[in-house]
């Protein structure tokens, strides 16, 4: 009888111990998810840039970029145009195929926009930078080689990356203002914001992301932008980093749909 009671006590204790280990849901607890949006990118590590790095091919990350910034209260991002106007922004260029076609559409419709340039692309296609500037668009630094994890580097390396990109832009278009920095994937950190501001650049985010980098149909891109935009909005689009035929096809409808309600503006390059 005493032996059976002892065995029962062991069973109760063992069962109680298992309950604590597995939690209320009956499954072993797992680590908390990363604050960045799904799908998270897994880019290859990038070496820190030198002042005059060699050009490389257009950035083509193996996974889709993150599109939601980390949530911190130690920094403030620019998420609006600063007025009632709506700003179109184009990331990852300049690209020899898509950027000229985007510029053609904008010029035909009298629209000014903001181009967030990647340093390796600038170095490879300086004439396109000069065309962007000559046609009255605003420039934005988008890192040297689209480094998704740039903000996790030391501040010295972040600064080197941003300065190398600015230097490449100025080599192509001397003296042009570069008043904005946009972190690849929107993967902001306090360090990236701090360094950008120290170099005179506002950390530029967005309010509308139609996820054109996923290559949906042009009609889907147009609908997402027109329905999702409000006064003062900043629209994220891409003119490089992959096949941008659907973005290009969507652009006339985006311009027409937004102009029915808002003024389209370029972001100011003077503060």
TrEMBL record:
Residues 36-58 have a biased composition (Pro residues). Residues 84-268 form the NodB homology domain. Keywords: Signal. PROSITE patterns: NODB, PROKAR_LIPOPROTEIN. One of its GO terms (molecular function) is hydrolase activity, acting on carbon-nitrogen (but not peptide) bonds. It comes from the Bacteria. The keyword Signal applies. SUPFAM superfamilies: Glycoside hydrolase/deacetylase (SSF88713). Residues 27-75 are annotated as: Disordered. Residues 59-69 have a biased composition (Low complexity). One of its GO terms (biological process) is carbohydrate metabolic process. Residues 1-21 form the signal peptide. This is NodB homology domain-containing protein.
């Amino acid at each position: 009888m005493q032996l059976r009671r002892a065995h029962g006590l062991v069973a109760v204790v063992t069962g109680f111990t298992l309950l604590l280990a597995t939690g209320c849901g009956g499954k072993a607890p797992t680590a908390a998810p990363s604050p960045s949006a799904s799908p998270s990118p897994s880019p290859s590590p990038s070496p820190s840039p030198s002042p005059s790095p060699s050009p490389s091919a257009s950035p083509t990350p193996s996974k889709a970029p993150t599109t939601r910034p980390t949530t911190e209260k130690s920094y403030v991002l620019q998420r609006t145009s600063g007025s009632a106007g709506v700003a179109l922004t184009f990331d990852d260029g300049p690209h020899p195929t898509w950027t000229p076609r985007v510029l053609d559409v904008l010029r035909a419709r009298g629209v000014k926009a903001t181009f967030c340039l990647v340093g390796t692309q600038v170095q490879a296609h300086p004439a396109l930078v000069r065309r962007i500037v000559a046609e009255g668009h605003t420039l934005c630094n988008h890192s040297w080689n689209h480094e998704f994890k740039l903000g996790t580097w030391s501040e010295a390396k972040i600064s080197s990356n941003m300065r190398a990109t600015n230097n490449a832009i100025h080599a192509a278009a001397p003296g042009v203002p570069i008043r904005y920095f946009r972190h690849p994937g929107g993967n902001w950190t306090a360090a990236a914001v701090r360094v950008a501001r120290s170099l005179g650049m506002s950390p530029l985010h967005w309010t509308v992301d139609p996820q054109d980098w996923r290559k949906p149909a042009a009609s889907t891109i147009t609908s997402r932008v027109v329905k999702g935009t409000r006064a003062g909005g900043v629209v994220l689009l891409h003119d490089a980093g992959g096949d941008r035929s659907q973005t290009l096809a969507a652009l006339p409808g985006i311009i027409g749909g937004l102009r029915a309600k808002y003024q389209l503006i370029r972001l100011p390059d003077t503060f």
